[in-house]
Amino acid sequence: MYKLYCRIYQGVFKIGMNFIPWGMPKTLEGPGSVKKLPKWIKKKKIKNVLVIGGSRTSYYLVRHLLQVGIKVCLVESDPERAAELLLCDLEKLV
């Protein structure tokens, strides 16, 4: 019975994929790409962004996103790094 359920589930997704819009992901590369991303996100009318990981690049990205008025949620698994990021100039971090 479980196999039948799985086959029906797969079939529904196979048919549904024809109706779900899909596009190639756009990548921003090169120098200054972190600075270009917030403007691109703002142009797409995205209001909230989730950033995973508290690397240096994430830090700069979050700063630029906040500067253009986008709400940001930053997720970092290392508690020490998360506290370090909060002590920086990210007071608006949600």
Walk me through what this model shows.
By secondary structure, this protein is mostly helical. The protein has a domain at 34-94: NAD(P)-binding Rossmann-like Domain (Rossmann fold), CATH 3.40.50. It is 50% helix and 11% strand. It is built from four helices and two strands, in the order ααβαβα. The chain has helices at residues 2-16, 33-43, 56-67, 79-87, and strands at 48-52, 71-75. The protein has a two-stranded parallel ribbon with strand order 1-2. Helix 2 packs across helix 3 (56-67). The longest helix has 15 residues, at 2-16. The model has no long low-confidence stretch (mean pLDDT 84).
The SS-based structural class is: mainly alpha
Low-confidence stretches: none
> Strands across the major sheet, in which order?
1-2
Shape call: extended
Name of the CATH architecture of the domain at 34-94: 3-Layer(aba) Sandwich
**Radius of gyration, whole Å:** 19 Å
